[in-house]
Write a structure and sequence with these properties.
By secondary structure, this protein is mostly beta strands. It is built from 2 helices and 20 strands. The longest helix has 14 residues.
Length: 267
Amino acid sequence: MKFRKAYLLIIIGLFAAIHTPQVISKNSFLVAPGRVMFDLSRPKTQSFIITNNGDEAIRLNIKVVYFSVDSSSLGIGFPLNEETAKIEDLKPYLRVSPPRLSLKPGQRRDIRISIRPPSSLTEGTYRSHLLVSMMEVAETITDLNPSEGSGDVGMHLSLKMETAVAIYGEKGQGQAELQISCVIDAETGDFNYKITNPSPWRFDGWVRAYSNEGDKKVIQEDRLTIMRESTRSIISKSKPTADSLFLRWSDLNTEELIGSANCPIAQ
C-alpha cells in the first residue's frame, strides 16, 4: 500500500497504539537550508544541498509546487481572496536543476533554483515550495503475526519519504499590516488571537502581550507566521484575567517593532 507521508503518519499512530510492529528503516535524506529567499528585483540562482544519510542508494524526484494556505499540506489559515493563490505563486517563474537525482550513501549534491520573474510583478511577498520525493521505500512496518484470537489483521506498509522546503521571493520593501482581535473561547476559556493580514507582505515574527501599553513584563508570547492576504487563529491556551491586553508584534530575526495595538478581550 502506498500513501503520502502525511496520511501514513496518521495510520501508523493508530496502528502503533494497539500493536508493536517490526520497523525496518533502510534509507533517508536531508535537505538544507529549510528555506531560501529571493530578491525579485535582482534575482539570482540559489542552491539547496541534499544529503543521503541512509544506508542504501536512493533516487529522488525534485519539483516546484505551490501549497495554498488552506491546503492539507500547509493548513495555516485561509485566503482573504481566492485570487491570492494565483497572484503569489512563484512556480511559473522557477526552474530546478537537476529535476532527478541519484545519491549513494553519504553522498551530497547541490540542487540549483533559478528564477525569472516578469517585470510586471507588483511589490509584495511571493512563494512556492521545493518538493523532494524519494522513489525507493524509506521504511517498512510489518506486523504479520497478530496475537491469536485477537481478530486483528496482519499488516505490511511500505513508506516513501518526501519533504518540502520553502521558497520565498520579495519585490520591494514593505511590512505586513496585521489586524488582531482577542477572544476567549466559550467552551475552554482559552485565550485566542484572530489575525488578519490584508497586506501583500508575509509576516514572520512574535506577538507579545502586556497588561498595558507602558508595561515591560510580557504575559503572553506567541510565534506567528501569516502569509499575504490571509487570516488565521492562534490558540494561546492561557487565561488572562484582564479585560484587554496591549499587543506588540516584531520581526523574528531582528526583533524590530512592526506594530502595536490595544486588544479588548471579547467573550
